[in-house]
Every structure is written in C-alpha cells, then in structure tokens.
Amino acid sequence: MAFSLSIYPWVFKAQFAGNGSWTEVYDEKPHKTPAEEAALSPADQQLLLAKRNSFPELPLVNYTTQYGLGCFEGLKAFPQPDGILKLFRPDRNGARMKMSMEGLKMPGFPADQFVRAARGVISRNAALGFRPDYEPEWESDNFQNASSVYLRPFSYSEPAIGLGLSTTPWVVVIATPVSSYFKEGSSSAITTQSVRANRLGTGWIKCDANYVIPILAKKMAEAAGYMEAIFLDAVEQKYVEEGSSCNFFCVMKNGTLVTPELGDTILPGITRDSVIALAGDLGIKVEQRRLAIKEVIEKGAECFVTGTAAGVSYLESLTHKHKTALFNGGKIGEVTLELQKTLKGIQYGRLPDRHSWLQDV
Ligand SMILES: *Cc1c(COP(=O)(O)O)cnc(C)c1O
C-alpha cells in the first residue's frame, strides 16, 4: 500500500463565498463495500478509483493547474487499540493551511472549519468501513508497518488563465489509506546543489510550487543510488535546511539534538515541533540554529528526517562533496529509535498522550 492514492468515497469541498464565509458540501463518490471493492479485478478497481478522483464541477484551467498557485496539507488519523480513530494535531495543520493560503494572498480557510472537515471526512468514510483497524502485531516493530488514514486537504482556484490571485478558492479534503512511507533498505542521503527555497520566497508555507525542485532533486538522488536529497541554504550552500519534503535533525556526538531554526526557507513541520517537544521530555538537549553541513559530516552521530508521511526516518549516511559520513554503522541510532518509538507509541495510543496531541474524530 505504502503511499499510493486510493481515495475513500467521502470527500469534502468548500468554496469561499465572500464575507469570510465558506459554502461546504460532503460528496459521497461511487463505491461498493471495502470487501466488494477488494474482490474487483485490478482494472475495475482503477475504474472505480478514477470515478472517485473525478471532480467535474472543479475547473481544469485555473491558477492552480496553470501556475502552481495552490497549497496543501497532510495529516493522519491513527487507529487506536480501543477501536476508534484519532487525528494527530489537526489544529496545527488547520492553522498552517490558513497561513499557506494567506501566504498566497487568497482567503484563508478557518482552522476550526478545517478540523471539522478533517473529522467529517474520516468519520463518514469509517462509517462505510473505509478505515484501517488496529492490529496488535504492529507493536512488534514499533508500528513501522502500521496503517493509518492520510488526509490531503488542498486549495484549488477558480477558473482563470491570466496572471492573478485566487479570490474564491475551493478547499478540498480527500482521504486515502497509507502504510509505511519509505521503502525498506537504503536510507542514504546526498546533498543537492538545487535550491528549494529562497529568502523572501515561499519556503515557509506548504505550497504546490515548492515541490517541483525537491521532486527533481530527489529523483536525481535516487538515480545516483541514494534515498533522499538534502537541501542546503540558497546563499552560501553551507547550512543544512531540509530534506525533499521533510525536516532535518542531527544528534551530535556530544548528545545534543540540532535542527535548523525556522525562517522563511524552512517549513514549520508539525512532526518537527512534536519531536522537539518529545526530545525535551526525554531530557535531550535540543538546539534550533543554523547547522553547517560540515558540522553534520564531522560531528554527527545520528541523522533523521521528519514529516507526517515519513514519521521519524533515520539516515544511514550523508554524502556531501564526495565525503560520506556513515552514522551508527548504518543502523538506526539510539536517540532516533527512542524518538520514533515514542512518537508512534503516542499516535497509535500505546503511550500516554501527555501533550494532548490526539483528537477524537
Ligand atoms: C510538509 C513538509 C514537511 C513536514 O511537515 P509535517 O507537518 O511534519 O508533516 C517538511 N518539509 C516540507 C518542505 C514540507 O512540505
């Protein structure tokens, strides 16, 4: 399953109606029962999924499809041992979605409405049986292969062809099941000379346009035998910024956990924020500051990247200008493992949620 698109039947749509109000609808797309759908031929399954991924009422030619003027979110609902599903920090995704939309000078979708929509999509689909169930065997490998529901809220502009701003955007929320994001095996990374984000640019918001360069850089890294591309700052190419779609952390040999400080070229990841809090709980010293690539190569003991899709994913090595640092003999480090276990344990309801991050659906 990994990170493929298999849209659940219920989708949410809202459109800005002026005066700060949004017109909302939930649509039930064509479906059968999950068991009946699983029994369909692959071709029939694709046909059904294509129907669910079709929105004839949304215009094809607009600022989003022509110029990348759109933004999105990614958040998950986790099956709990007691049978219910819980969303992880949806309020933060809602706040960031609003910030991203306003960063693109369009009306921002209110965060509380976003959270209600997230709940609405999860609960409607779950009522039809479209949801993963908690499986105790997930605990045997710390939820590395556990499933969850991924929500993808995104903005979409009104019809347009010239250059301009979206004044009456839609916000669409779709759900799809996911399991582990990165393939097992290689988790090596290499720095890229491509520039993801510039000063005074859009690196601090989650917008479509930010993803073009990272996709190209990640594919180039993969072609060279690495899993991930690591971006450096645009000006000096000296400081680590992010992975292709995830934040970067390094545990130094002295035990301090360092992550690049937020600024207009770093995306304020919610997993990043959560990991910083959990590290504090575990008594680990955390620094948010400029982090030179030289320092990572020479003094790094463990490195990992974070994101909703990636979780906490360790990097076995990092290559920069023909120098490769191998971390912990290529195996996941102690601190990384502890943070990964703690975060997943909280998300899947196996560890106490001390920060009240989980919200009922
Ligand atoms: C979404 C994203 C992240 C991770 O953010 P989370 O809130 O943890 O999912 C990191 N970097 C970039 C560039 C992103 O777009």
Radius of gyration: 21 Å
Order of helices and strands: EEHHHEEHHEEEHEEEEHEHEEEEHE
Question: Quick one: CATH superfamily of the largest domain?
Answer: Aminotransferase class 4, branched-chain amino acid transferase, N-terminal domain
What portion of residues belong to β-strands?
A: 15-25%
Strand order of the largest sheet: 2-1-6-5-3-4-17
Question: Overview of this structure, please?
Answer:
It is built from 9 helices and 17 strands. It is globular, with a radius of gyration of 21 Å. It has 361 residues and is of the alpha+beta class. 27% of the residues lie in helices and 25% in strands. It has helices at 34-39, 42-52, 63-67, 90-103, 111-127, 212-223, 270-281, 293-299, 334-347, and strands spanning 10-16, 22-28, 75-79, 85-88, 148-156, 170-178, 188-192, 228-232, 240-242, 247-252, 257-259, 286-288, 300-307, 311-315, 317-320, 323-326, 358-360. Helix 4 (90-103) packs across helix 5. It has 2 domains: 10-178, 2-Layer Sandwich (D-amino Acid Aminotransferase, Chain A, domain 1); 188-347, Alpha-Beta Barrel (D-amino Acid Aminotransferase, Chain A, domain 2). Strand 7 (188-192), helix 6 and strand 8 (228-232) form a beta-alpha-beta unit. The longest helix is centred in the N-terminal third of the chain and has 17 residues, at 111-127. A 7-stranded antiparallel sheet has the order 2-1-6-5-3-4-17. Pyridoxal-5'-phosphate binds at residues 74, 206, 242, 245-247, 267, 269-272, 306-308.
